[in-house]
Amino acid sequence: MANYRITDHPILPVTEAATVEFSWQGKPLTARPGEMISSALFARGIRAFGHHPRDGAPQGIFCANGQCSQCMVIADGKPVKACMTPVAPGMRVEPLDGLPVLPVLPEVAGTPALAETPTVEVPVLILGGGPAGMSAAIQLAERGVRVILVDDKDRLGGKLVLQTHRFFGSINAVYAGTRGIDIAAKLEGQVRARPEIDVWLNSTALAVFSDGLVGVLQSGGEGETARAVSPAPSLPPTERYVLVKPQILLVATGAREKSLVFKGNTLPGVYGAGAFQTLVNRDLVKAANRLFIVGGGNVGLIAGYHALQAGIEVVGLVEALPECGGYKVHKDKLARMGVPIYTRHTIVSANGAGARQASGAGQVDSVTIAQLDDAWRVIPGTEKSFACDTVLIAVGLDPVDEFTAKAREYGLPVFDAGDAEEIAEASAAMFSGKIKGLEIARALGLDVGDVPRDWYRTADILKSHPGAVIEARIPEQGSGVVPILHCTQEIPCNPCTSVCPQQLIHIPDEDIRVIPDFLGPSVDKACIGCEKCVTICPGLAITLVDYRKDAAMPTVTLAYEFLEASVAAGDTVTVLDAVGEVLGDVVVTNARAIPRNDRTVMLKLQAPAEIAKRIAGIRVQEPWVAEALETEVTRIDDDEIVCRCERVTADEIRALIRKGYRDMNEIKAVTRAQMGACGGKTCSALLLRLFREEGVPLDEVRRNVPRPLFVEVPLGVFAGAEEKGARDE
């Protein structure tokens, strides 16, 4: 069977790990200790985890975050979410084909032993152990406030643990220039050092109740509160239901990915950027061979870069807007590595075997895109198709704010931070959490003073959208060493100004969104060629041109975040400008990685003076990778799915809207849309989008009644059943 493990990575350590044996459809497989079922299956090339009972459509992962239910499998006789269930030794995993058959429960003599639900009182309960939640907990702990920090993963960090790239922002405020994975470690270290913070990992908040209690499904913990309740990686966690009574609730639960309606949108191989990064950067699984990206925000652009680092071919990226919404340096970086970006284009269909097959393997084999006109309609005749095995959906995020709404409804004092409050970058989430921590301390009556006004200003800067694009400013200097700043868009970022020992890189304003300048000879100082600015730049947008040895053929130094062994002195490489235009072929004179450069290879190229200052990177991917198929692939199946759980199509919903339906609850009753295991998390936003597309103002739409519980839970857990079998009655 194929092996899709990543065996070498330029940023992440790859080590030999122990293995856990389990079976899939009776065939023996191995997983890494603590690995989720979905990742263990992907590592063996298994994409289809079952087939839907309604139409036999193959089912795979979409969110890999427990928000949907597409990855459901049968593990030891029970239906579970493959992305949230760790492999246990000897576990028997089967595909979910049709409706699950309930297991036969053992006979229990007498009444099962039940335990009283424990209640824990705490000044502050924080839901979410990502950048916002940890930053708030640290602020509160520094002021002596006891905190319970709850997260449903086996480690702290949230999405930071998936981010191998360096962060933008301010060095002093939010660790700019540091990789997300390292920021997660720094914040976790601060959390673990504070005895005031109790960390509940592998634990899920289920509901906020009218009496001010918050129900939490706690896994692996002992006693009322545990410093760390992560179970041993190879052992299944124990579970108990706990009621937490906080004086104040902080919701830092992050965001969930938006879905998109198009033909073939639920085929195995169509999934979200977060799922992709989870597989690749957390679990070191090569989740694709050939990837196509839908969405030009930072999430999609960064995921494309991460794919290239993992040895995955990136066939292209489509963005419906005239320009990508993410940072221009992210777009430029991807373009100059050989990835074509199609703006004013959309996906028409993901193509592949959609119906049940004898092999059980339905998945993506190509994608079809087309150009959009000014009315956002596909222009006939512009369709083109590309061979790929994965379509990555990165079309935005929605806040996970259900707990905030319920707390406000029931009068429980509540704050929110990070993406749960407002979708922005992780750097903004860190600072948001810091502010909310201080605001909560004040709300508890502590004498902590006012939140500094400059904190709010910094938060606003970090949350700001990309600003104006200016023409590149190339220094005229043609001697000595010259840093070339290839960043031309106003974004919050200042690491280069902070690390320059000569203070030659300057932002002429306190607002770090202003594009920096190289001061050069105007201050009677010379660049010493230390390379610190090149190394730390999050956008890989700074190069050095050194004229000291040869003014006609200067040496260009640039950052390279791929395997050091992939390029060597003497190699000929294709160099490109900041936006991906080919400048020519040049020779590599040196390639070196030293510890102080933090897993970044410094490449030195000898290039003609007429192109040296324009060089921004080298081509990583050959042009033929992104070539379209000779003929367009047309998908016949009418499977634009809105509700993944119940396989309800867009046409079914549109027909009801045109009949006059304006109540999402009525649509639910007629079609079962929003009635599935995900509780409407993935389809509710799509239903609202269909109303808008049909010309119905959203103030005329009655919203769906939300589920009382955030996730599904065995009833026995609420009763505290001690017998394992009694939990599932």
Number of helices: 17
Structural category is: alpha/beta
Assign an overall shape. globular
Average pLDDT level:
90
CATH architecture of the largest domain: 3-Layer(bba) Sandwich
Low-confidence stretches: 221-237, 355-360, 723-729
Distance between the termini: 38 Å
CATH homologous superfamily designation of the largest domain: FAD/NAD(P)-binding domain
Structure overview:
This protein has 729 residues and is α/β, with parallel strands linked by helices. The chain folds into four domains: 20-99 and 259-393, FAD/NAD(P)-binding domain, CATH 3.50.50.60; 121-255 and 399-462, FAD/NAD(P)-binding domain; 481-626, no CATH class; 646-729, no CATH class. Helix content is 20%, strand content 23%. The protein has 17 helices and 35 strands. The strands form eight sheets. Strands 1, 2, 3, 4, 5, 6 and 7 form a seven-stranded mixed β-sheet that branches. Helix 2 packs parallel to helix 4 (180-192), helix 5 (273-282) packs parallel to helix 6 (298-309) and helix 9 (426-443) runs antiparallel to helix 10.
Layout: helices, strands, pairs:
Elements: E1 20-24, E2 27-31, H1 37-42, E3 50-51, E4 58-59, E5 72-75, E6 78-81, E7 92-97, E8 119-127, H2 131-142, E9 147-150, H3 171-174, H4 180-192, E10 197-200, E11 204-208, E12 214-219, E13 239-251, E14 255-257, E15 270-272, H5 273-282, E16 290-294, H6 298-309, E17 313-319, H7 328-335, E18 341-343, E19 345-352, E20 364-371, E21 384-387, E22 390-393, E23 397-399, H8 402-410, E24 414-416, H9 426-443, H10 453-463, E25 481-485, H11 495-499, E26 505-506, E27 517-518, H12 532-536, E28 542-546, E29 555-560, E30 572-576, E31 582-592, E32 601-606, H13 609-612, E33 617-618, E34 641-643, E35 648-649, H14 650-658, H15 664-671, H16 684-693, H17 715-719
Parallel strand pairs: 1-7, 3-7, 8-9, 8-13, 9-10, 13-24, 15-22, 16-17, 16-22, 17-18
Antiparallel strand pairs: 1-2, 3-4, 5-6, 5-7, 11-12, 12-13, 14-23, 19-20, 20-21, 25-28, 26-27, 28-29, 29-32, 30-31, 30-33, 31-32, 34-35
Helix pairs in contact: 2-4, 2-9, 5-6, 6-7, 9-10
